[in-house]
Amino acid sequence: MFFIMGISTGEKKIDFVQTILCSRCGQFGRLEVIMTYMYFSFFFIPIFRWNKHYYVKSSCCKTTYEIDLILGKRIAKGEQVVMKEEELKEVKTGFYGYHQPSCRNCGYPLQGDFEYCPKCGSRIS
Asked: pTM for the whole thing?
């Protein structure tokens, strides 16, 4: 007899959106909730899930926050929740968390100590 089973990780986007003025980048954006989990499957059918974590990602600067498990379960059940900034624990800084130098003429991202832009050839000051 041949059995196909396994353990894997999954991700599910929860139907929740909250409009914010982002404290990280200062732009308007949305908070979107994502649940991650591990699951056991038997013949490619998920049987049960465990190790659930709930994350919030901002649409403006892509910063990721972790939220409390109880709050995440409330959101997953469909409760109307307004998240406060103190409930968000930053996990990963978005692309506004750092500055990558770029060419002033064409905007090409620069790496290393270039004297001239590799795309347009203008002198880097």
From this structure: 0.69
